[in-house]
Amino acid sequence: MSDETQQCDVAPAVDAVAALTPAVGDGPRADCVLCGEPTELPADQPGVTLCPVCAWQEAQRIACSG
Q1: CA distances (Å), 11 to each of 8, 14, 26, 36, in order?
Q2: How far apart are CA 15 and CA 25, in angstroms?
Q3: How far apart are CA 12 and CA 46, in angstroms?
Q4: Which of 30, 34, 42 is nearest to 61 (CA)?
Q5: Residue 55 banded pLDDT, cuts 50, 70, 90
Q6: Residue 1 pLDDT > 50, yes or no?
Q7: Buried b vs exposed e over 3-42: b needs ≥16 C-beta within 10 Å?
Q8: What whole-number distance in Å separates Cα of residue 6 and Cα of residue 58?
Q9: How far apart are the C-alpha atoms of 33 and 37, rounded to whole Å?
């Protein structure tokens, strides 16, 4: 019997993900809706805000779901 299940790669280091996220001007930052950490997005950003790590993990969940 062989195990043919697919597995996602391990998440990159937080510094690597943060380096890919463009910085936004000074001012209050929105908190991530999943973990509560501050994001790079302004506090008045409409919609769901995710920190770089949660955004990457969410993309992996979607990519590996089927």
Answers
A1: 9, 8, 28, 19
A2: 19
A3: 27
A4: 34
A5: very high
A6: no
A7: eeeeeeeeeeeeeebeeeeeeeeeeebbebeeeeeebebe
A8: 17
A9: 8
Question: Taking phi first (over 0 means left), then psi (-120 to 50 degrees means alpha), and beta for anything else, what does residue 27 get?
Answer: left
Measured in residues, the chain has a length of 66
C-alpha angle 16/10/3, rounded to 5°? 160
* Secondary structure class of 26 (helix, strand, coil): coil
* Residue 41 identity (one-letter amino acid): L
The two tokens of residue 45 are 């950003």
The tens digit of pLDDT for each residue in 3-53 reads 565 556 666 565 655 555 555 567 888 999 999 998 888 888 888 899 999
